[in-house]
Amino acid sequence: MSIKAIRTCIVCRKSENPSALIRLTLVDGKVIPDLKGGAPGRGAWLHRECAESAIQRGSFKFAFKATSAPDVSELINRLDNK
Asked: For residues 41 and 66, is the Cβ–Cβ distance under 8 A?
């Protein structure tokens, strides 16, 4: 019997199956969506509908344990193009 991983959205704190969330990683100070799910390092998970709140609140600084707010321009571009 296999146990499925459950992840928690960094904004609304609801626990979900990873398929319902977007995994984000921090690469060179930029928040990047991990669309293939194989990027190394710390990941942050959120619902697509929670992305705007995460950006406004500065949630990524805390999620990635960064000393300053990371660049979210790549995330905004990807979300706008979907």
From this structure: no
Give pLDDT tens digits for 37-80: 788 888 999 999 999 999 999 999 999 999 999 999 999 988 88
Q: How far is CA 24 from CA 1, 2, 3, 30, 63, in A?
A: 29, 25, 23, 10, 10
For residues 1 and 39, is the Cβ–Cβ distance under 8 A?
no
34 is a domain residue = yes
Task: Confirm whether 71 is domain-assigned.
Answer: yes
The pLDDT of residue 2? 59
Number of domains forming the structure of the chain: 1
**How large is the average pLDDT for residues 26-32?**
92
The DSSP call for residue 37 is S
Answer whether residue 1 is part of any domain. no
C-alpha distances (whole Å) from 18 to each of 6, 28, 46, 47 are 6, 24, 9, 10
